[in-house]
Amino acid sequence: MIVSAMQRVTQLFQIDKPIIQAGMIWASGWRLASAVSNAGGLGLIGSGSMYPDVLEEHIIKCKAATQKPFGVNLPLLYPQIESHIDVIIKQQVPIVFTSAGNPNTFTRRLKERNIIVVHVVSSSRFAIKAQDAGCDAVVAEGFEAGGHNGREETTTLVLLPSVCERVHIPVIAAGGIATGRQMLAAMVLGACGVQVGSRFIATPEASSHPDFKNAILQSAEGDTALVMKKLTPVRLLKNAFYEQVIEAEAAGADKMQLQNLLGKGRAKKGMFEGAMEEGELEIGQVSALIHELKPAAAVVAEIWQEFQRLRKACSE
User: Fold this and answer.
1) Do residue 161 and residue 282 come from a single domain?
2) Predicted local confidence at residue 151, as pLDDT
3) Of 51, 130, 207, 213, which is the most buried if we count CB atoms within 10 A?
């Protein structure tokens, strides 16, 4: 059952292992994406932090660094989406993961160019919409995940089987997954593969600032929180900026006040430039389980080997 489920993802993407690296802003450039793809998973370039010309540069470099399939993650809430789509089509990117928006907007246009489209969802209702829009698969992302998140605050443990019950396209599990043990749990719940984000930030290939990576290694349970629900909910590592947000929300700040507090470039300041107190530090709850910086290929191998060992043990 698990083997046949995995094959739905490995055959769809033409990869060896059903492990997908999330396209995280300020972390997922061509180095990380190509390293994961070369290790047998699916690497994604995170376009949310890139201008169109920068995205094109990363795609070209990724093509030069791997002969394996890779994709682009496209957050639909960011500006210049049309230009990003043009670059993706021009460079013949084979796979696109869309998120944070309506899948109806671009799915047909991408699929007309024979591009595989996957949409990230936080509820079974949105999963059905993605399926109806023609998406080839969905990522069911629980609220444990870092970065932008669902307002429903549904955990992966509940969301994943709910989505699997309601759609017939492959479902990829995300949110709180960093080990082979967690991957096995997701597969038992019906997933065809897993998407891993936070674990890949703690790799040399990730473009995030070293101080951010070190903060991840030092984090513990309860060190992240979901905030800014009046804007777009986001899970952050707690720091001085987080405290400012909490104080503003407790004082009844409206959407405009929170937007002014967030300002521009807050995520870049924290995750890319290393402003550990003033920046926005997007990371998942699973950061509490990440204790060591490892190459991306070693992360893929570690997850896969633990998954295979435990799957075999459970069948004995």
Assistant:
1) no
2) 82
3) 130
